DNA sequence: CTGTTAGCGCATTCAG
DNA sequence: CTGAATGCGCTAACAG
């Protein structure tokens, strides 16, 4: 493992000079500079990020905390977050907040937060509010991403989108297609809605149009959407459309329709929210509301890095609404029958 | 940020003593010990992993390098890898090997390998062989996971499974169901097969049974499977079964069958390989060969950590075949018509 | 322009 | 049983 000192010795200069050369600080003569570079090159020198971090008090990583990497949304987010981090010369540490048994692992967070990583990015949509606040040690730069209800977020800088608007768009689309019997399917954890804002946005719009929408709560997964839709489709009169607050639920609903022998979109329209990659890959492809995951991931990472660089860059309760949800028309919705 | 020294000062002892207490080395008297602990507790002391790493020359992270986190297989693997790493007190750094333009990002790997992270875990199935060897700096503990062809792996410790056997199992299943016109759909990158061993295993078994199987190569994705199957299902006589070397391809094939108006599994059987979570969530659910991703992720991480702890723990070309592929019968396969 | 001097926070000898 | 000393690899003032 060749170190700064090694190359200093060989180049016949001091460590400081090597450091200056390699960091392009311009205090060094062209000749020495060239020599140092040559030696560094020849020895395949790579600075040790740990040592750099220790010396200048700035970790080269950020930690991303979430509940389930295997969820297609989170993995997509992680992918974009990693790219955004890398653009600013940082690495991404992935951390499951929860232990296998489901409880929050605070010791783990404590070890990583603010030391190994310069800050923490919390993907909020699944993580409980009180837990969050207590799990991250005080004073560690923290940004909350994807918090459902912008109007009521914890006292942390928060980067998210207008979920209410997303819900409204989905409802609007179905109404515009002439649907009146619209069932709403909302993601929940136990008996608590996880998609409150989308749900509110959707039902508000529906009520505006004189359509009343009770919502069915279900676990946010394909299986959950399937189960719930199977029940919903038994109702008489049957809904002509299902509005799912998340794509996985919507995909499950499409499957249920298939099993019930209903043609999508001819006999049943289904719309989701998020636009995970899977939405486009399903048959029929899912009409959904694109929330622009990439921009949010970018903005979240950038906000966190800004906060790390400049602890007062963001107010403790700063709120950034990123992007504007937009409808993506695919094959799962059509004119009401 | 409270440091070791802070608590030493307050507890009225030296830093070494604090370290000894907190690391349970037993050299310290019960009373001082208790006092130190109390102070550490009260001040919310958390050791700085960076400093620890620098001092004892051991990074608390490992890097996982792969081509696409959004791929359901990789995200599943990453999830399990993170758990395995955490069990041994390490964090997981995720690294996309490729830049957005597709070329390998060696500078990035160089920065992380062996310094920020103690070692590198490379998910091989998509990464080119020559690239791999050159991208990771010499002397950095490296483990290759999921390499397709165990018989011909690069000169790196390698943890994988018997993909040939997985292919054989899939073929065997279809043969046992009485299928004779079996189309094989194999993942490829450009015109190079990515799933060579599975393909060989499958075609070998098919040939054994007197069934000849030319393979169709396609990009390994749902869309790719869909495209390829659309073509295959035009043939006369039509195949009664499709063997896909990966689940995404299989899922695409099922979709294509649907569009061609063929009932799965009555008129067309489809079998995949891997058993990603999506396989179980599709309708019909995909019959597939489970490769036990979790055990492989565990074994890979453990092998890497062993290698880091003991550089000679594994031979430079050690090969570990983990688990035994097993067929998971679901709803996409049935007796040949 | 270059080298010397201090740390960054911690772990580990080695004397006391 | 304890504490002072040393070093991990690097950066950032300083002096020269």
From TrEMBL, chains A, B:
CDD domains: HTH_LacI (cd01392), PBP1_LacI_sugar_binding-like (cd06267). Residues 2-56 form the HTH lacI-type domain. One of its GO terms (molecular function) is transcription cis-regulatory region binding. Coiled coil: none annotated. The keyword Repeat does not apply. InterPro entries: HTH_LacI, LacI/GalR-like_sensor, Lambda_DNA-bd_dom_sf, Peripla_BP_I. Keywords: DNA-binding, Transcription, Transcription regulation. PROSITE patterns: HTH_LACI_1, HTH_LACI_2. This is LacI family transcriptional regulator. The lineage of its organism: Bacteria, Pseudomonadati, Pseudomonadota, Alphaproteobacteria, Hyphomicrobiales.
